[in-house]
Amino acid sequence: xxxxxxxxxxxxxxxxxxxxxxxxxxxxxxxxxxxxxxxxxxxxxxxxxxxxxxxxxxxxxxxxxxxxxxxxxxxxxxxxxxxxxxxxxxxxxxxxxxxxxxxxxxxxxxxxxxxxxxxxxxxxxxxxxxxxxxxxxxxxxxxxxxxxxxxxxxxxxxxxxxxxxxxxxxxxxxxxxxxxxxxxxxxx
Length: 188
Ligand code: HEM
Known about the structure:
This protein has 188 residues and is an alpha+beta fold. 25% of the residues lie in helices and 32% in strands. Protoporphyrin IX containing FE binds next to β5, α5, β6, β7 and α6.
């Protein structure tokens, strides 16, 4: 019996047109990416001709959880993230690459750093009501970044989002981040 294959890849396209207007591109660590004015999202892998007019294309896919425990998942599920709400005009796309030391660790060692040492999930819990998010995995696609993170929130919650970022960036987990670019956009 033939089974239908689904392509879960999402392409984030930086260029001269798109649904999201870029306000700032800040390099937090590692090398920068090329500047451009818009981002558009396509739920597919792009052909060479589709890439022609783009400044850059980053690809990722939503995946299963790696580190979250059942009690943590229950808390996350109480306030599921919803993307695309028109009132949430502020958007952030933050591609991240972790270093080889991180990838040499075992799953339990990485969990130890991410949560027991750094409290990534516990810190995030405080922002569940205001910050909508989606994590995309890129490493297994051979991409230059390991993850693409995407966030949506209202203008009044922008300061909260920046507070969340500064907390996470001061953790042990972030000492393993070798490249991070913070792209802020407005929904148009
Ligand atoms: C709303 C607040 C947030 C919550 C509730 C949250 C929650 C989580 C959870 C539960 C995971 C683990 C997923 C798994 O089990 O595989 C995770 C992973 C991750 N989060 Fe967050 N997060 C938040 C904010 C952020 C922010 C602001 C960033 C970065 C800019 C970020 C970057 C990441 C990355 C890169 C991973 C993947 C880590 C890895 O697999 O090595 N998160 N987050």
